[in-house]
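Just scan this pair:

***
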Amino acid sequence: MEIHFTSLLVADGYLWLMENLTSNFLLDCNFVFDLTNLCIVSTIKGQGSSEKSELLVALKPGETRIIRFLLVDPMLAWGYSYTFSYKVTETIASEDELVSIVKTKGELKPVTYQGQETPVQYWVHFLNE
């Protein structure tokens, strides 16, 4: 899967580059930080500069985000640690695409209805997992 996360040390803090190079997968991440002498400057809509310790990132197929961690006081020690959780979900754009996935990944099983056996193609999948 082509989803990348890179952390770079720069003169005034850190840069995080997050890229979703897939064509049909959505990435949802939740980061919880322990920041020391840093604040977050994000390119995520609605999230500006902050010393808060949680950051939610959703990357659609083909999207890129840059998150900056800037020094508050360059004379003091600085750094960060974090924990995160994430999920990757496949996006399905049309009913035809869904039918194609079921036919490709599914199984054929005979089902009996009113005494007549009919082959049914099915695929067990849980949405939003």
Notes: The chain has a mean pLDDT of 82. The chain has one helix and nine strands. The CA atoms of residues 19 and 64 lie 4 Å apart. Residues 95-105 form the longest helix (11 residues).
